[in-house]
Amino acid sequence: MRLPEKYENEMKDLLQEEYEAYKESLGLPIQQGYRINTGKISKEEWEKIAPFSAKEVPWIENGYFLLDDFRASRHPYYFAGLYYLQEPSAMTPANRLNVEPGDFVLDLCAAPGGKATELGSRLKGKGMLVANDISNSRAKALLKNLELAGIANLYVTSEEPAKLCQNFPEFFDKVLIDAPCSGEGMFHREPKMIEYWEKRGPEEYVPIQKQLILYGSRMLKPGGKLLYSTCTFSKKEDEEVIQWLLEQNTDMHLISIAPYEGFSKGFGLSECVRIFPHKMSGEGHFLALLEKKSTEQDNTQKQKLQMGKELKLPNCVEEFFSLLKFPIDRSCLKLEKERLYLLPNAVKMPKLRYLRTGLLLGEVKKNRFEPSQALAMALKPEHFASCISIDSTDVRCVKYLKGETLDVSDLPCNNKKGWQLVCVERYPLGFGKLSNGILKNKYYAGWRWQ
Ligand SMILES: C[S@@+](CC[C@H](N)C(=O)[O-])C[C@H]1O[C@@H](n2cnc3c(N)ncnc32)[C@H](O)[C@@H]1O
Description:
Strand 22 and strand 23 (438-441) form a beta hairpin. Among the domains are: 305-369, no CATH class; 379-447, Archaeosine Trna-guanine Transglycosylase, Chain: A, domain 4 (Roll). The strands form four sheets. Strands 5, 6, 7, 8, 9, 10, 11, 12, 13 and 16 form a ten-stranded mixed sheet that branches. It has a five-stranded mixed sheet with strand order 19-21-22-23-20. Residues 301-306 have low confidence and may be disordered. The protein contains 14 helices and 23 strands. By secondary structure, the protein is α+β, with helices and mostly antiparallel strands. Helix 8 (161-167) packs parallel to helix 10 and helix 10 runs parallel beside helix 11 (239-248). It is globular. The structure holds S-adenosylmethionine (SAM). Residues 108-115, 133-135, 138, 161, 178, 180, 208, 212 line the site of S-adenosylmethionine.
C-alpha cells in the first residue's frame, strides 16, 4: 500500500520501532465484525441461533469477528435488527461510555449509527438518546439504523452543535463525540481515504474537533461523562484536542477506560486509549473518557415538564391500541398532521431540525390506522395480540421482506383476521394483515430486500 511520505514520517515519529509492524499489518486481510443488539437478543440466545461462524471480540462482550465470507447483511436476522455490522475497534467507544438505563445521552456526530445503535440498546427503553448529525442525508441513514435496532426513546436531529448547545446546557448524563477526522485508521479498509487525507489532512479537522468537544462538554451535566473518539492516529486530532479541552475547562478531567491487554496508552495522556492494528485485531481508534466535576444542583430537573394533556384519540387508533399488550403512557403521545408519536419522556424539547421525535407509532389515514415499521421493530412478540412466526430457512421469510403477499394458512396465530406482527422465529420483521389465510404484506417498501 502506498502511503503519503508526510504520513509515513509522522507515523515513524509516533511509533518509532513499532512502525514496521504497523506497516506490515496493512498487508493483512481485513477483519470484519458484527455486534449483537442486546436490546433484542441475549448473547446466549444468539449463540444458539447464529447462522455464521464467528469468534468473540475479547474486549467487547457483544462483539464478534466474522470468520468467513458469509453475506451477513443478507439474512432475515439482519432485517430483524439482531446485529450491526461493524469493524471491531469501532465497537469500543460506545462500549466504554457505560450508558445505563435512564440516562439522557447525546451522540453528537452519530451517522450512520454504528455507535448510536449500541448506546440506544443500552438504555433498555429508559431515558433518551439524542442522535445528531450535521449532514441531513447521513442522518436519514442514521434514523433507519436506529429504527431497525428497535430503539424507541430517541430524537434524531440534524443540527449545528452550537444550536444544540444553546438548547441543552448541562443537560446530558453521557455525551459521545465520534469526531469527523482525517481517517488514518481507515487506510487499510478504504484506501480511498488516502486521497482524501492528501486533500484534507489532520490540520483541517482540528478546529472542527475542538469546537465539537467544547460544545459537547457544555452540554454535559455536572458529574456526567463524555467520550471523545476518532479513527485516526495523528496526535493533533487526538491527545492535543483533549489537552486543549482540559486547559479550557478546569471542571473536566480524564478518567481511565476499562482496560484490555491489546490497548496502548495515549501519548502523554496515559488514561487515553490507542488501538493500533499491529497490536490487536482492530483497524485503529483513539478514545478519551472525561468526567465533569459534580455540583450539588442538578440542572436537568428544571427542564423536565409536567406531563402533557392526554390526547383524545380517533377510534381506529384505540382499536389498534387494544392489540398492543404493553402500557402506553398517553400523556407522551403526540399527533402531528396524520402521524402519531410516542415521545420518550415528559421533557419539553426545543424547536430543532428533527428527523424523528420519539417512536413513530403509525399514521391515521381517514378512519384507518396504519402502524409503522418502526413500531414493529420496537416490539417483542409478547407485546402484540397476534403473531405469525416464519422460520428463517422458510422461503416465505425472504418473500415477506421483498414485499410479497403470502399464503400462511399453515402457520398458527391467535387472530385469524386482521393485524399480525410478522416474525422470523421470535424476532419481529414488520406487520401484515391476515384474511382467509392470506397475509397482505405491510413491510415498509423503502426497506425491502432488493
Ligand atoms: C466518524 S463519523 C461518525 C460515525 C458514527 N459515529 C458511527 O459510528 O456510525 C463523523 C460524522 O460527523 C459528522 N459531522 C461532521 N461535522 C459535524 C459537525 N460540525 N456537527 C455534527 N456532526 C458533524 C459527519 O457527517 C459524520 O457523519
